[in-house]
């Protein structure tokens, strides 16, 4: 599989967003799914697929701790683009998590909280799919600098497609503004990266875009991406 993935990487490294989306949908069809946290990049992907009338399954991980603005954007996307967004929730409700692990687990052991509320639901969301798509970009963090447009996901053992891998922050926002694409209003309030409300804070201009995630911990990823 790795040799095949390498050939796809070479063929698509300079491909346009539309070409990558067309290739991915043609290659995997119903075996492809977009994982969306409804950040700016995901809005680009969903809008472009909608414009091109490409059938694209979309899911999101509802940790029960998303910002109200995120929930509102999900509904707006459903209404505007008619995506049947599947929401995957943790098998352990927050109340039971508190009973088993104590209150506000995220403030003490964020890795454990992410495993329960993100990684486990993601495994269910990807079940039966051969490939998944994300809005990851190389610029977003040091852990993503080597990101390829197509790669083999060694954690979840599937092909992973990152159509915006080489896009800049400016390119994303130029697209959103040019096409009047809706986005999370928290982006305008100093939140470049938006996750769960207890673990996300605003950042100052010039700070790393991921610095508002898990402030106070040596943590940059939730376990979904490595």
Largest sheet: 6 strands, mixed
Looking at the structure, the CATH topology is Rossmann fold
- Termini separation comes to 19 Å
SSE string? HHEHEHEHHEEEH
The domain tally reads 1
Q: What portion of residues belong to β-strands?
A: 5-15%
- Average pLDDT level: 90
Output the CATH homologous superfamily: HUPs
Fold and architecture overview:
This protein has seven helices and six strands. Helices cover 37% and strands 10% of the residues. The protein has one domain (2-190): HUPs (Rossmann fold), CATH 3.40.50.620. A hairpin with a 4-residue loop joins strand 5 and strand 6. It is an alpha/beta fold. The protein has helices at residues 2-12, 17-28, 40-51, 68-81, 94-101, 110-126, 169-178; strands at 32-35, 57-61, 86-88, 131-133, 150-153, 158-161. The radius of gyration is 17 Å and the shape is globular. A six-stranded mixed sheet has the order 3-2-1-4-6-5.
């Amino acid at each position: 599989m790795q040799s095949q993935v390498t050939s796809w990487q070479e063929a698509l490294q300079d491909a346009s967003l539309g070409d990558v989306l067309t290739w991915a949908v043609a290659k995997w069809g119903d075996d492809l799914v977009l994982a969306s946290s409804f950040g700016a990049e995901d809005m680009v992907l969903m809008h472009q697929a909608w414009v091109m009338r490409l059938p694209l399954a979309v899911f999101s991980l509802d940790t029960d701790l998303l910002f109200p603005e995120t929930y509102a954007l999900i509904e707006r996307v459903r209404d505007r683009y008619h995506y049947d967004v599947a929401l995957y929730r943790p098998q352990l409700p927050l109340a039971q998590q508190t009973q088993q692990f104590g209150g506000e687990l995220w403030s003490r052991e964020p890795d454990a909280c992410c495993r329960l509320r993100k990684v486990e639901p993601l495994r269910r969301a990807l079940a039966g799919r051969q490939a998944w798509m994300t809005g990851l970009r190389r610029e977003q963090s040091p852990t993503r600098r080597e990101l390829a447009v197509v790669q083999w996901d060694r954690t979840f053992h599937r092909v992973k497609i990152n159509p915006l891998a080489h896009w800049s922050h400016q390119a994303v926002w130029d697209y959103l503004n040019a096409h009047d694409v809706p986005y999370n209003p928290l982006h305008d309030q100093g939140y470049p990266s938006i996750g769960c409300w207890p673990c996300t804070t605003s950042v100052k201009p010039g700070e790393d875009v991921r610095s508002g995630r898990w402030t106070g911990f040596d943590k940059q990823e939730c376990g979904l991406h490595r």
